[in-house]
Fold this protein.
Amino acid sequence: MPQAIVFDVDGTLVDSVDLHAHAWQDALREFGKDIPFQDIRDQIGKGGDQLMPVFLSDDEVRRLGKELQKVRSAIYQEKYVSQVRPFPAVRELFERIKRDGKKIALASSADKDEFEPNLRLLKVDDLVDAATSSADAERSKPHPDIFEAALKKLGLPAPACIAVGDTPYDAQAAGKIGLATVGLLCGGFPEQDLRSAGCLEICKDPADLLSHYEQSALR
């Protein structure tokens, strides 16, 4: 039985993947890069440090990267953050996990000013034992730094925990440190992509995971 469940946030607990993709598309356009929406969406789940090199040269990342991330953050706050909504049954799922005596961590690579509104939306801060933001990790997913930071805050080794995420990058990051992953489809990534990345089981969303809790890896 796992001692703790480590949740990704964007796309896993809140419906924000499209919104992040639009913010990146808007910001990249301001820097002369007209990138198709789906191409950007396919990269959401990575932090900016891993996403920008997909669309920019190394020289462009060095010259423009910091300013691009500032512009993206400002666009997201101005146009999109107010549209984020929590997926149903997140609190109920967390309450069920806590009834089993397990700990809960949130492993988010979002900036603090984006993570905190998500936490307010979810209304689960009283159920969360540990949480990370971009300040806790040098590199974002698919590097394992965020999960390592969450496990350190929990005081538990990877084999004692289960991760829950919505992107292949969650599973890849977790797998690098021996952390098993349950995949959710609510972030919009294909089931086969999640399985290929190493997810040991798949559910539709937090509500579906709750409904199958007794048969899931979380139990």
Remarks:
- The chain has two domains: 4-15+85-215, 17-83.
- The chain is about 45% helix and 15% strand.
